[in-house]
Amino acid sequence: MIAAVSLGFFGSIFALIGMKCTKVGGSDKAKAKIACLAGIVFILSGLCSMTGCSLYANKITTEFFDPLFVEQK
């Protein structure tokens, strides 16, 4: 989840630099590459977030259905 948050932050920065209305980032061709990079970073962030949530949900469900786990039943 920490990787997802940090990748989302860097994706936002790359997206802001890659917008056509900003003066930072060079030509339109370079800005298009930066915007594409931002999209890839956002996809990686989503995959990291989905992986973290899935692992946590798997842990919760296995503990719930385990008859030997008597912590809070």
TrEMBL record:
The keyword Cell membrane applies. GO terms for cellular component: bicellular tight junction; plasma membrane. One of its GO terms (molecular function) is structural molecule activity. Keywords: Cell junction, Cell membrane, Membrane, Tight junction, Transmembrane, Transmembrane helix. The chain crosses the membrane at residues 6-22, 34-57. The keyword Transmembrane applies. It is found in: Cell junction, Tight junction; Cell membrane. It is a multi-pass membrane protein. Coiled coil: none annotated. PANTHER family: CLAUDIN. Belongs to the claudin family. This is Claudin 10. It comes from Bos indicus x Bos taurus (Hybrid cattle).
